[in-house]
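Q: Entry one of two.
A:
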Amino acid sequence: METLSNTHNRWTAKQFIVLAGIWLAFLISFITRLSWSTIVPAAIDSLHFTVQQGNNYLTAFYIGYAITVLPGGMLADKFGYRKLLLAAVLGNLVVMAAMVFMHGYWDGLALRFILGLVSGPDLSACLGIITEWFGGKKRATATGIFNTCTSFGLTVINLYAPTVMVHYGWRATLGVTAFFPLVAFIFAYFALKGNPPYPQQFVVKKSNGEVKEETAIERLKKAINNRSVWMLAITGLFATGAKWGVTNWANLFIVKNLHFSLVTAGVAMSIFGITSVISMVVAGWISDHSTLSRHAWAAIFMAIFTPTIIGFTFVPHGNVAMLYFWTGAMGVGAFMFSTITNNLSVEVAPADQRGTVSGFINAFNQVGSFLAPVLLGQILAGTGSYVTSYLIIAAFPLIAVVALMFVRESDANKYDEVKD
């Protein structure tokens, strides 16, 4: 006879379908944002852009994204997570299709900025959907599987984009990329239908005998008045910044400082991607099947990051085996914690504020993601040392670990697995 615990831990077919829907939807968000990085060498030559102008397209996306992550989360709370996610996917489809026909610098720059704007609500909406469909003892595992789409996006874009670009040009590559949000929209539209077991709930308050729903601004004020929310925001600023700082600079570091070939660097970063995917799923499973609090596990996983950056920084020249080992280890350190911190961003929030809180925290994540690579560049320019740049950023996860010690999960959301 199966135990009640086993019954609670079993996933339903609908949960698998829902998770596939949001996984695909967020995957295409990464594919569309990474598409410019892939085609930029050919595109800037064709359009006669400077390298700096090409880089401005990357910056434009992240500025737009950072602007809308918080209001996007608030809108998700107001109109529903499913509606906002479908709107974000549809926006990606329209913008990517429009970019096929761009001809000048400014229209392309505007489209990249708009792509960032329409993508802002995606993460908050996806995390909100997870809370609606998965109870507490399934939620971190679901989040870990969901998070794998970020690393998988790097793989997918590199599987087709270079080949299409070589044979048919960069415009055709953008056209193929626009096909992904179309597929994701159709699949997610049907996959996310139905009544979730833990639906979004809105707090109402009585005033002079009248029942009044709290406004978005009132919910926002309540959200930012929460110590755990601020600690997770600080965590995201430093830890997510370090993650994307070292990720974006890893290929350059391997080739320019460690003096390995581009091919070897590519293999190392493939290992980085594989270990990051595995570690995110493992982190979620551990958290769901442990009595230790989520914030404690997040701190443990995050503490791994600093020594892996240091180990990667001091890989001996010419030692390929050590390069592969430390790059793989850094993939674990850089991504394993994100499963738990993403999960915490909705679990520290009241049921009516999950989108708002995750959007607020994600805004700090985006600031860190934007500033860390810039900081690395400034340190490199000032010191001329790649090693110094990496060692300084290696301290960032430790600051995040301290912040996590002040996080406390919400009792209202932590133990709802009994209803699962």
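Q: Entry two of two.
A:
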Amino acid sequence: MRRLVGGALAGALVLAGCTQEYDDDMAMTTTPPLVLETSAPEEAAATSAPTTDAQPAEPVDPATAIPEEELLEQTEWVLGLLEEDATGPAAEESARRFAPTFLEEVSVIQLGTIFAGLRGSAPYTVTSAAQSEGVGRTATLTLHAADQPLVMTLSLDENDQIASLLFQPDTSGEAPQISSWPDLDEALTELGGQSQVVVGDVRDGTCEVTYTTRGLDPGEAFPSGSVVKLLVLAAVADAAQEGDLAWEDELTITPDVTSLPSGVLQDREDGSTVTVREAAELMISISDNTATDLLIEAVGQGALRESVTTAGLDTTRIMPVPTTRQIFQLGWQVDSEVRDRWAEAAVPESREAILADLPEELDVPAAAVTVPVWESGVDWFLTGAEICSLHARLQQQATSGAGEPVREILATNPGLTPPDGVTYQAFKGGSVPGVLALSFYLETSRETEETDGDPDASPPGGVVLVVQTRSEEAIDQMRAVTIIEAGLQHLAQGPG
């Protein structure tokens, strides 16, 4: 089974409350602890869902794909609750298995009702299983029953308790045939909204764009969600190079920088510390929002501006870089009048004044973070070429002594299983309601062979694929991942 980007995918029917889900990103950050989608989105069901006449896949043993003992044990316990003759879960067992934040939002009675309903389609057969790589603690399984297959996603917190649980119909569908980049453009139209594809060659710290979606202005910035965290990482690496910040420095978690999930740091005690290195790893690999805001505070807007300029990005459009906490407030806490002023603000100074007036408290109900707000300018807007430039700059920074951790940080979560022949894969994605952006930097054995044996050769270059989708409606992310994965395979094959 290929690894799904970010674990939980948006668009599910909310059964209770708020909070955490693994990676990416803010659309998933407010995915409640227990979610059950009872049917596929109408369009997805018609175009991409597996048919019940198809030959079922062979059963797999979750133990072969989930090496972490605690994650496997909790996954097998949930699978046991789905058996035809199962009951519960009982209150005492639920208190032991589920995180307190989970049980604050989902009562034991609700749990019993939901699992009883799921057992109505039993027996289930596990036909694929995978564990998230890097620091994420998420298992993703496909379950076959008499009805449409389900994807189950389970995440653990730092205490080995279940922090989130998601069941969704499998709308991933068959991969499209991609033999040219216009083929990918065509396949993406299935998602609705508007999608932009940018492909680039990276060498010596620069990106040369080789393809952009036809009919779209290549200079138009799209909402990109947490892909902007590449910029934050670049600013951290710059600060490390200048000696203003060290990877071993400790950052203190305080209420004024604690954001909403995704991530794990928002659940740590006030006053606890995290190193710059750990925060950067969490920011990139599981899109930890509190880690991001800690790093933005540590480097400051001045350093961010310098990184924007060095990477060749548009400072007038991008600056100041809002924290994730501020994006949540702008999008779903303050009055629409504030969003109107934000949308009309044409210069950084105007946006700085709006951010300065935001409430001190972060008070965003989970149910609110389902409405797209990118049309009001609430997001981080980047062009595909700018994202490619950020990948290029980061790889260049990684060649310096101070920037060496960058390369490992970017590859901790490759997003999707690297295609054959790929020797290195960096990834950062982002999503908010109505927005999905995925970016990959690949090096293949071809680039490595070009420099083997030549001591004067530049470091091997790579290629970048950026896909940005914006929509007034929820995006079927499962189907999007299948389509983009086919594009990633095409990227790895070489020019074309």
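A: Comment on entry two: The chain has two domains: 26-169, 181-493. The CA atoms of residues 5 and 415 lie 5 Å apart.
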